[in-house]
Amino acid sequence: MKIAKMIFLFCLIVSILAITGTIQAEELQVRHAMQSEIGSTVTCPVMGGRFEVVKRTPVIDYKGKSYYFCCDPCISDFRKNPDKYVEAGELMVRQPMQSEIGKKATCPVMGDKFEVSESTPVIDYKGKSYYFCCEGCIPDFRKNPDKYAK
């Protein structure tokens, strides 16, 4: 009788784990970009690089939001711990794109005017790119981005 109970419990646990794994696997299915997404400029949630969506851009829809990936290794990292990248959300620091280098900018925290260089930290927030004069300004912006976003 004890063995039958143990086998039943084992089968129950395996079934629950299989169902949970199937749900998560379904939730993290990769698709290609839809026609309406092609041409959009997006940020890879893993690497933080900005790029333009093309037909073959891999996309994962997770918790009601679409995440676009620059490469397959980023998809693997995202699948391991998607919430890590979801929490980072809109306040990920990235390097400027080639088209942004040389642009005149004003640091939202210090108010200093400068020219964007390859090492300028950038945060994309609510559809706008914010350029920082130094790494030291980023924590203040992250604490209260609405205070500095204009």
User: SS-based structural class?
Assistant: alpha+beta
Count of individual helical segments: 5
In which range does the helix fraction lie? 25-40%
Low-confidence stretches: 20-26
Say how many strands there are.
10
Query: Cα distance, first to last residue?
Result: 70 Å
Write the element-wise H/E pattern from the N-terminal end onward: HEEEEEHHEEEEEHH
> How many separate domains make up the residues?
2
Shape: elongated
Major β-sheet annotation:
3 strands, antiparallel
Q: Biggest sheet, strands in spatial order?
A: 1-4-5
Gyration radius over CA: 21 Å
Strand content range: 15-25%
Mean pLDDT: 82
Describe it.
The protein has 150 residues and is an alpha+beta fold. It has two domains: 30-90, no CATH class; 93-148, no CATH class. Helices cover 35% and strands 23% of the residues. The protein has five helices and ten strands. It has a three-stranded antiparallel beta sheet, with no helix packed on it. Strands 6-9-10 form a three-stranded antiparallel beta sheet, with no helix packed on it. Strands 2-3 form a two-stranded antiparallel sheet. A hairpin with a 2-residue loop joins strand 4 (58-62) and strand 5 (65-68). Helix 2 (72-80) crosses helix 3. The protein starts with a helix and ends with a helix. Mean pLDDT is 82; it is low at 20-26.
Helix and strand layout, with pairings?
Blueprint: H1 2-27, E1 30-32, E2 41-43, E3 50-52, E4 58-62, E5 65-68, H2 72-80, H3 82-88, E6 93-94, E7 104-106, E8 113-115, E9 122-125, E10 128-131, H4 138-143, H5 145-148
